[in-house]
Design a protein that fits this description.
about 575 residues; alpha/beta; Purple Acid Phosphatase, chain A, domain 2; six-stranded mixed sheet; 13 helices; 19 strands; about 15% strand; CDP-glycerol diphosphatase activity
Length: about 575
Amino acid sequence: MRFAVNLGDLIDGKNVALGQTDVALERVLAPIEAFQDAIGPVHHCVGNHEMYNFTREQYIHKLLYHTTSPHTQSPHSLPPPTTDVAYYSFIDPAAPSIEFIVLDSYGRSVLGSPAGSSDHISSIQLEGADQRFVQYNGAIDDVQMTWLKGILDAASAERRQVVVFAHVPVHEAASGNHPAAVLQNKWIMHVLIADVQYADDDDGWNYRKTSRRYYRHGLQVLRWATADWIDEAAITPRCMRFAVDLGDVIDGKNEPVGASYSALRAATAIFDEFQHAVGPVHHCVGNHELYNFSKATYVKEVTLHTQSRHADDASIPPRATAVAYYTFTEPSLPSYLFVVLDPYGQSTIGSPVDSPEYANAVEVGGSFPVVYVAGMHRLNENCVVGARPRLHQLYPFDCFTWGMAVRNVRNNPNENKNSSLGMPRDESLRCTEFNGAVDDTQLAWLANVLATAVANKQNVVLFTHVPIHPDTCRPGGVLLWNYAKVTALLDGHASSVRAVFSGHSHRNGYAEDHGIHYMVFHAALECPPTDNDAENRAYATVDVYENGLHVRGAGVIPSKTISW
């Protein structure tokens, strides 16, 4: 470590009114002096709050001349000792190929200049409708601009790299006060949580015995999330608009003990707090919902539970829907279209065994098998080809999938075709019943939705329980059966499709492909109850901007900025 840089506004302008300017400066300089004594110099960029407290001459003497250190032998590593300006360049002997530049963002400013002076008069003549024309911003004066050009020309001729420090952003893409800035003009926020999988049951393991699951504590994570979201909504009125449950809000454990509805009510009671205070909670259908309910019951009890006095009809699922996929919009944000997909449109779970939907799902894929996942455990002997057992028959083995081997089961190397043991650790692992497919009817609907969005120049954000990009969930055991079809469709409309949010994997995942950002979220179910509750939680807030998204993760969810 060689030096530090204070990017400005070291003390606040409030100190002037309080008569505390020198006292405040002395307090903040104490730790800076400790750094300089122990390591190296601290360089300073002049900020507007320094100019509220000092004239430019005072600033130079109190801060620029304060930049020194016994560990710095070269004068080229410090501001010039007789400078009368607040800009300069320096070179550290340890990195002679890099030149560092400290700019004065207030070379032309009404701040720090005596009223009536030429600098003050020229500054107040700056005018325009642009938001940057306010006194707390400033400009690089002409003399400094000429100096800067000379420094940059010399650096280029001598093949030196340049790093610039300044208090006020010098590029519109970095400025919060410019309408064309990256991730600016924030319009709304929405929030996300995945895989709560609540059950009033003791902690357990996934079927492979590789991940601990906290069935009761998942509901506590949901409570924390909802409380945080409501609190943030209270201080950002009309900004937070909706929440999305990415699926598996209750666990399959509830079905064999007759607790499906009571578990669902426990979860929706918490969601109702958000719907009452903020806006609707949208739900993605997950495999665990379908272990508890038929698809028709899910739509009635969960999809249509999405409603709020703060939302209009365009912001909630159609009241007459019979399917678990739909689009919604926010009236304040017409340039965005939100899509909820049903990754179990083609699935053997959630459909009666004798239904056309079940028969169609049995045949899905053509060239790959749909098999049981047995892990290291042998399935109950009743789980034979052609039979669909009740869930409790599988519980002794902690395996919540049932299925029917289809044509091409020869691709499964096991004598017992109900086992995936020994199958390649690749995308063929997705051929299990806890995954599913987007059915042809839904695909045709989605194609039309995306084509319309492209024509309307809308940004599209999709929500789905099962990941649809293989790079988000390697080796692929929790991947959509027909992911290739869906991603190809999205790629064909990449000018509008911006992001896809999923759960199901229980681990964080991210991929960017054709400019589309795919994010998979850690399961709330697998956040252990510990003394450090702030770290052991999993949910996120998404800030929606004119030209990007900012995901603010809580606990184990990473933050991510997406721009286009």
